[in-house]
Each structure stands twice: as structure tokens, then as C-alpha cells.
Amino acid sequence: MLQLLDLTQSDLRDLMTSWGEPAYRGDQIYTWLHKELVTDLAEMTNLPKALRAKLATETAIDPLELIVQIDSKDKLTRKALFRLKDGNTIEVVLMLYNYRRTVCISTQVGCGMGCTFCATAQGGLARNLCAGEIIAQVHYFERWLRESGGGEGLRIERPATLTNVVVMGMGEPLANYDALLQAIRAIANPKTFELSARSITLSTVGLIPMIDRLTEEDVPVRLAVSLHAPSNRLRNKLVPINNRYPLEALIAACHRYQAQTNRRITFEYALMRGINDAQQQAELLSDLLADINCHVNLIPLNPIPDSPYQPTAEAEAQRFLKILTDAHIPATMRLRRGIEINAGCGQLRQATQQPDMIDLL
After folding, report:
1. Which spans in the chain are helix H?
2. Looking at the whole model, is its pTM more than 0.85?
3. Average pLDDT over residues 61-69
């Protein structure tokens, strides 16, 4: 069955001509999919009935099946677990802030980067997501916001639409580069979805060849680098890809990206008690980032049950933050969201796969 969301606008035009239809039918279908967000072919009312019937027998629209979704107690976070057509599962999170409605999406089933403190990494990598599976995550919450105005559970005022997309869910985005870029171009298409590419943040553990490739793209996404350690010795342990792409090479790639794009880079740093939160490590981090236009996003770790990695205490986290700001490194402490609903990357999926963890739901 052909998945329509996997097709670009050009692909849809080619499909229509191969079926003996005018190419503009592909444009109409693309608009229905990416602007109107329809999931029912019967709603494509400007298409001939015969074409809709053929589409119904040979194509499908939505590759996601909702398994469960949970709202946080403060009604500011909703996490959804979806089943894909092959039975694999992925997570998506909607987070609400003062004037922003941000969806955090996944790019892979699992992850192959092996970060030792991450729930997703514990299960390894199953496969890359297709472009349509990435797009459908954004469409799901945009469709829900449009239809409900946030009237079902979460604290949202009308009119309600997504304002930001962060590619920080399951998987390493740059390891699924082509599908991700196709999805971003669809989401940031000014004629359909209309979300600015500048409202999209892409997080990577530091795949240098892909950062260099992204540098040359015409998609003005914001780059975030998952750093988590200020030295190669520690980062080799926490983020094993550092053994291939050490900090010196990663920072050099960030400089190249910034020289070409003139965009500020975010560095993400998950604070772990007794691991990477010491005063000396804050000073090393300040030195490492001293000559780059950046912002450090300090993240109190979302803990995994029985893990040796636990979040830094509030007082120690604030001390770490002060050392950075005193060194004139722009930094903030990320607000922790959805701890009680397993909102950390991979945690809800992990819970549903382990019977003894079901009570966490």
C-alpha cells in the first residue's frame, strides 16, 4: 500500500500522470494532505469519485495508530505513543508554554547512538522512520489543536496551532538525514503547513559529516547539539559517538555551521548528579564554548528507574548555571515537564514494553 505522506509534491504529480490524470491532481492531493490535514480520502471533494476510489484501493494516508496518550497533572504536557504499520512504536510529546505550542517528534524507532543515560538507547535501533511517519507526528497534534482548540484536557486558548517543532524525540535525526529533510520541507512549506523552518530545532549528538551537509542546505532550521560533557574522557562514556567525532572536531564543525548560516547554536547539557555537574566541569564547559555564539540549555535529567544516572539537585544545578553565566555564556535551566507521565525520551515506550513498569502509566 502506497503511503501518500511519503510522497513529495513532485512525486504526487508524477503518480497522477502515471495514472492518466492531469498533474495538477497531485497538487490538489498535496494540499489536502499538508494544509487541510485530511485522513479520509472522501474529504478530497475536488477530486473525481473514480480517482478517490482508486486512491482508496492503492494508497493510505495516516501511518500512525494511537495506543495511549497521557496528560501531565498541570495539563501542560501530553505524551502519545503510536503504533506503526509494522508494529513498531514511537513517542511524540506536545508541550505548552506561555505563547508557544511545541511538538517534540521522533525520527527513528529506537536509537543506535548508545548514550548511556537515555531510555531510548537501551532498546537499540530498530529502523529509520519514513518521511511520512515523521510528518504524521506533527500533523496529529496540529489536527488535534485545530479541532479541539485545546478544549480536551490541556490548558490551551483558542485559536490553537503549533508554533514550534523540536526534533528531539526518539532517534538521532541526522542518522536519518534524507527522510528528515523531506519532512522538514513539507512542514515548512509556505503554501501548505506554513510553519517557518526557523521554528524547527534539530538536535544531534554530533554527526559531523551530516552537520556539514546541513550547513549547505537551504532550510533554516535551528541546530542543537547534545553535548552533556565538557571533556572527551567523560563524553566518550556518556555519548559513545564521541569516540569517532571528538569534541575538538565537533566544535570546529559548529564553527563552520555558524560561519555559513550566522545562526546561534544551542548546546544541550543534561545535568547528572555526581557525573557531570561539578564546578570544574562547569568551568571546562565555559572554556570550551567561549568563542562561539551559543546558548546552553541545562536539562535536569529525566531519571530512568534503576539507572545510576540521576538528576542533579536543584542547588547544585543553580550553581552550575551561575558559573556559566558569570563566564558570559548564555544559559538557562530547562523547565522539567511530564516527569509523572514518562515524558523523557523513550520512557513511555519502555514502560509499555515491560509488564513490571505498567504501573508507571
Report:
1. 9-18, 24-34, 49-58, 119-122, 131-148, 177-187, 208-215, 232-238, 247-261, 279-288, 314-326, 347-353
2. yes
3. 97
